[in-house]
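We store sequence with structure; for instance:
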Amino acid sequence: MTYNVAGSIRFNTDSSKLEIYNGDTWWEIDSTSPAEQTGGTRGLFAGGSTGSLVDTIDFINVDTTGDAADFGNLTDPAVLGAGFASRTRGVTSLGALNPNPAVDRIDFVTIASQGDAADFGNLTIGRRSSGGCSSSTRGLFGGGVNPGGQVRIDYITIAQTGDAITFGDLTSSRTELGGCASPTRGIFVGGQPANNTIDFVTISTLGDAADFGDLTDARPMYNSACSNAIRGLFGGNKYPSTSVNTIDYITMATLGDALDFGDLTRTNSEVASVSSPTRGVWGGGYYPSKVDVMDYVQIMSGGNAQDFGDLQNSRGRFAGSFSNGHGGLS
């Protein structure tokens, strides 16, 4: 007999997979792990601006501390994209290429092997400053701008190269938002025009987003989100005249407003973030100038961030960031 209590395990005869119940839904138990593939969770920071656009891809082992190393290069220098990943493949939209205001291009890399990115396909419309999130199979790009704010959510199947398909709409048109996920839910947070909105979707279905709750305050620009399978964290963002060091968190299986988690080591915006099942890492950013610093926190215990190490160079407005151990991968 199967009991629907958190921690229960069952064998799904339809999928021939083991599943675990998280108190809300059944999650498939993945038979692989980042440790088997890359010696720990590997986090990648792609593209960005040092004052001029770059195509650099850095990588770190999220489970340790230390400076980032060179992974390879994007197909072009790019900023303001959105990234996500499966266990094996990392994907990022290219956002904006100088001098173009926005493009529809998508790149991908194989996370376990260093090397340059290759072309994946195209978004349904060119856009920059989107939010990205994924499960182990499906990736979502939400919002953005070209030339005005976009309400559309696109999706791709990560294992298959090709063009994106329309998923649904956000609750409002906005840009410069953040994204993270559990294995079942995709979360889109904040954005411009200034708002404290948190939206959610069910990744395995199609349809419009619904209201999840609110951030502790309005965060209009450059939100950066990361998660494990339980909690989503939002840190490093920009008000019209200044940056903040606030980190908020939510429990993704529930609905409700975000709570205060702690602070980054400095006020910062234009940051990128990656995560493992235990850690969230924020890298780079701007305020009052570009920085190469990476901060980290333990996701399940609140508190202020600590120094992780440095990126290869000081930059912000990344094309995308992702890991093979984030919260959307059960």
